[in-house]
Amino acid sequence: MKNLLLAALLLSCCGFAQTQPANPNDPMELVKQARQLMREGKHDEALALDRRAIAASPNLFEAHLDAGITLDLEGKYGEARPELQKAIDLATPKQKEQAQRSMAISYAFEGKAGDAARYEEPVIDAALARQDYIAAAEVANELARLYIESGDLDNAYKWYQTGYQTALKKSDLKDTDRALWDFRWEHAQARIAARRGKHDEAMQHVAAAKAALDKTNNPDQQRFFPYLTGYVAFYNGDYKTAIADLQKVNPPDPFINVLIAQAYEKTGDKTQATEYYRKVLASNAHNPTGAFSRPLAKKKLAES
User: How far apart are CA 257 and CA 247, in angstroms?
Assistant: First the structure.
């Protein structure tokens, strides 16, 4: 009987403990609240909570990382980078890659792909050292994208090619996965050719990309094809086609929206351009798509 009563008491106590509300002053709880506010676009409030968390726990990786990200979203890059560097310094081996890539994105907001490379190349090297060829290839492609949208097409080509060749080193790569990397490589070459004004070459790569896409048997990749055709059309000066194709991308990301906004601007439709610039700022993504689009959208809306 005593054992039964003791068991019941323990269960009751455990149940009570599980229902206790989180301590609102706990540093990690403050970070969680800050992240929600950041997602809602309430950057000043988010930053205030991150700073409270840092004051309570100066070596809290998450608080420094999130503070840096929020400052980037506010366009305060000079203030963001010391926070991101602190996060890199505090990171565990598992956390370090995230912090390094976040610093790279910080530089991408200003179109400084060369500076971003100083933080992404070690991530690639680390993945290669552990023979994780797909992870290395994905970061190489990310770096390539930072270069292409920063206007450095030669380095963009170099890193996309590196990403493609690295992925193919995976010994057990399935045919459908090989087709996916073929698609990504052709996709990249088409965009680079379009940026260089080589329309016929771009269209050849578009056709090759479609052929590879059909072999992937991956419906999730289908959205990247109208992005490709819209991108090529935009840089070919065919803005109506660009708008029509880019509007097929579902869901659209900030970069898609900023391309549509620019295309509308080129056609003289300022109302639609403004609408799409606003859509860009509705996102709080700290990734390449946000880095390429947010500063331009803020600038355009400030001018309107």
Answer: 8
